[in-house]
Amino acid sequence: MIDTATQEFIRIHRKDNVRRLALEAAKYPHVDIPVALDQIQGWQIATRKCPLLARYDGIIYPPHLSMEQCSSQQTAFYKTRLVRQLLDKDARHTMTDLTGGFGIDFLALSLAFQQATYVELNPTLCELMRHNLQVLRRTGTVICGNGAEWVAQMPHTNLIYIDPARRGEGGKRTYAIADCTPDVLSLRQLLVTKADKVLIKLSPMLDWHEAVRLLEQVEEVHLVAAGGECKEMLVVLSEQAIGTPAIVCANEKSTYRFMANTEQPAPIAAMAPEVGSYLYEPNAAIMKSGCFAQLCEAQDVLMAGHNSHLFLAPSPRPSFPGRQFRIEAVTSMNKRELKTSLQNIRQANITVRNFPLNVAELRKRLHLADGGPHYIFATTLADQRHILILCKKIR
User: Which of 80, 33, 39 has its CA nearest to residue 57?
Assistant: First the structure.
């Protein structure tokens, strides 16, 4: 698919700056520079998002947009672990990915199945998958066609995976389920009759309550965080799904499970936190879930104030799903109090939650540089007092 001269150029220059190589294209008349730059850029993205794939020489990468949109290795393998939990080993014979794309998710999910089928409308991506399966010494059936049409004729399978495109006309990003392609709302009933389990990847910007309401036959919703950011929403459907679905919040270090019952207001601390007590900041998946009352009950913590999304406890909570801090001082915005509390502190990591100043404004007010071992959380208590909580990170 790529000529020898271009392959050698890619091998030699794959760590080089792509823009500089583009400017020097005239130096290499025997090299297909556009193809080479696509491959070099693809490999560089893969080293960040899919390092296991980047180790293989001979992998061909798609254009830049497909690489940026593909799942990371971390989230792809989370899906594999999830599927192994959802389906018994004896029920993992076949799976079909109806929206193949570059195929990171397909390659990861297929590890859990005896047979795997990749369906993709773009013939170029289909050719890439056939080639890359050979490079990886993997087997799989590649179908070049419309997944929404293919599902109507396909045999029953153990798992259907679908990652609907979230870009509309002109490449504009969309979030609503109804705006994605293919339309999983119109396909929903067909999907659950064609597979034991259906796994749908949706935008992390979407409200999971809305996803559950629209898709109806929902067993579980997984909110997957990485690098301090909620990256994916995964929805599990089945024909047998009844009752309240589970909400699973997952990040690199922990997995936390709630039942999606009616969310009650989280209990609020009655007074300012004390020096020597502990402050907890939930991870991005917990924040996205909004299941704060259930978190308070499970961890025996209180929210610092309305909409603070910061939690307090008098003693350590080692299993808390997020960052953990010991409180060193608590101060109002009074100049004298600030001077006393911040003496000898020249830099700090600042977070604001339900506070009248943003980080830049507060940093300027406090005359503090960024970074260092000190952490300051600025928030508003239930009695509307604005406070700063100075902490040392313990986890």
Answer: 39
Contact 281, 298 (CB under 8 A): no
Cα first-last separation, the chain: 49
Q: Which residue has the tokens 């300051």?
A: 376
**DSSP string over 174-204:** --SGGGSBS-HHHHHHHHHHHEEEEEEEE-T
- Report the SS3 class of residue 22: helix
Question: Which structure tokens are listed for 262?
Answer: 């009616």
Backbone dihedral angles phi then psi of residue 154, each to the nearest 5 degrees: -75, 155
d(CA 259, CA 356): 34
Residue 74 · residue 137 · CB < 8 Å: no
Strand, helix or coil for residue 350: strand
Q: Which two tokens stand for residue 82?
A: 């999830």
Are 356 and 386 in contact, with CB atoms under 8 Å apart? yes
Q: Which two tokens stand for residue 208?
A: 């999971």
- Residue 281: beta bridge partners? 323
Tokens at 70, concatenated: 């593909």
Contact predicate 145/119, CB 8 Å: yes
Q: Which residues pair with 302 in a beta bridge?
A: 312
Amino acid 338 reads L
- Of 219, 337, 328, 347, the C-alpha closest to 276 is 328
Kindly give the confidence (pLDDT) of every residue in the chain, 395 residues in length, as a single tens digit, with 9 standing for 90 and above.
Answer: 788 889 889 999 999 999 999 998 888 889 999 999 999 999 999 999 999 999 998 999 998 777 877 889 999 999 999 999 999 988 899 999 999 999 999 999 999 999 999 999 999 999 999 999 999 999 999 999 999 999 999 999 999 999 998 765 555 666 788 888 899 999 999 999 999 999 999 999 999 999 999 999 999 999 999 888 999 999 999 999 888 899 999 988 789 999 877 667 889 998 889 999 999 999 999 999 999 999 999 999 999 999 999 999 999 999 999 999 999 999 999 999 999 999 989 999 999 999 999 999 999 999 999 999 999 999 999 999 999 999 999 98
